[in-house]
């Protein structure tokens, strides 16, 4: 990644298992394994899972390569479709992202099979726009740290990532930008103290994303996060 990545406001809280050493360049595929959940219904978390309250539920997303983009669609109440989210993120991909994915494919070709015929940045952007529901999970670009950071910046959201198996949490905040078109307009008229809304996703098997909702909402205010059972885990 280029020096731009240093501007990323990514804060990581390691669990008792120790630091994970994850960075935005440690690109790992959002591979949809056959054993992943495919239900799109919100269900209470199992007893003892993250100590969740009755108002907090895990909303399982379809494992078709679009899971993170479905999280965006859910958080926006359908205002941003999977296809639209993919397109906006594709526009934000840079040569540095292409170089990093090319290196990742060379090191782990099976995990990055979608890069097999991608020869330049324009082709990567074209592949990013492809929906897994249309072309299959192995042909579309899965969401990883780069896509999550871009989503946070584009939509002006804080994205809270918890990997319960690897044992880490990560808070990804929007990057500041002087470009007035770099964020969606939906948050611009809010009071500055509550402008940043939060999307909490659970990373499963290092590859799949589900959403934690509070009172049926996927996009949470700072107050909702602070009053939740998981707010303290992200130092909010």
List keywords for this structure.
alpha+beta; 8-stranded mixed sheet; 8 strands; globular; disordered N terminus
Q: H/E element string?
A: EEEHHHHHHEEEEEH
**Largest sheet composition:** 8 strands, mixed
Quantity of strands, as a count: 8
Strand content bin: 15-25%
Structural class: alpha+beta
Output mean pLDDT.
Answer: 78
Number of helices: 7
Contiguous low-pLDDT stretches (5 residues minimum) are 1-49, 177-183, 185-193
What would you call the quaternary organization?
single chain
The first-to-last residue Cα distance is 28 Å
Radius of gyration, CA atoms, in whole angstroms: 17 Å
Helix content: 25-40%
Mass-distribution shape: globular
Describe the 3D structure.
The chain has 236 residues and is of the alpha+beta class. The protein is built from 7 helices and 8 strands. The protein has helices at residues 67-75, 82-92, 95-107, 121-128, 132-135, 145-155, 222-227, and strands at residues 10-14, 42-44, 56-59, 157-163, 168-172, 197-204, 208-214, 219-220. Strands 1, 2, 3, 4, 5, 6, 7 and 8 form an 8-stranded mixed sheet that branches. The protein starts with 9 loop residues before the first strand and ends in a 9-residue tail after the last helix.
In short:
With 236 residues, the protein is of the alpha+beta class. The chain has 7 helices and 8 strands, in the order E-E-E-H-H-H-H-H-H-E-E-E-E-E-H.
Question: Which helices and strands appear, and what pairs or packs with what?
Answer:
Elements: E1 10-14, E2 42-44, E3 56-59, H1 67-75, H2 82-92, H3 95-107, H4 121-128, H5 132-135, H6 145-155, E4 157-163, E5 168-172, E6 197-204, E7 208-214, E8 219-220, H7 222-227
Parallel strand pairs: 4-6
Antiparallel strand pairs: 1-5, 2-3, 3-7, 4-5, 6-7, 6-8
Helix pairs in contact: 1-2, 2-4, 2-6
